[in-house]
User: Fold this.
Amino acid sequence: MAALDGKVALVIGGTRGIGAAVSRRMVADGASVGIVYRNRADDAQRLEADLLALGGSVAMAQADVADAGALGAAIDRIAGRFGRLDILVNVAGTAIVGPLEDYADDAFDRTFALNVRAPFLAAQKCAALMTDGGRIITIGSIVADRMPGAGGTLYAASKAALGGMTRGLARDLGERGITANLVQPGPIDTERNPADGPNAELNRSPLAIPRHGTADEVAALVAYLASADAGFVTGSTYDIDGGWSA
Assistant:
């Protein structure tokens, strides 16, 4: 039996980069997978076809998760499709960066709506639907702990908030055996931060392992936290950053 046979996983922001790798790993480990995505429907359709070809049971829902109503409706759609929910992986996020004096008036609200409020609302709703012994895993960023340069105040602040949220969820849900953990990647080779991109060398300069990580490496850590082996792990933050924080 695969590690997640019989489980249902919901991946929010699950069609590109780290999210797509997590979706693939959930299917490979035997889970049925619901995926929420915001745009780029062609990418979503291609991923769905790939997962179905692997024998996965997959449901897709399009929603802007910064919209609380749209997020809730998408979760209901996925849970209704499979009849249960065991695992939530929050991946979706945004990065509004630049000089402090240049932030737009709504930059704070837009950043926190997607990076903090959406994962909180998803965890709140999914916990109410989730079987005991469920898993909540949130993807943050290593800049929550170490900001290497200027221009990322809002992004770093929003990612730092996820640590407190995760520890609170662990306490609120521990009696039900539902775990909550945070994964903080460093530089990962994705479309947003390619290993051959213009900022790649600068991104690698703080690392002990002088390369970008891969989305599959992040997905492997998520898979462990989603598994029965991690049943006594909760309220924890896992850095997967090549030594960025060492």
Observations:
- The mean pLDDT is 94.
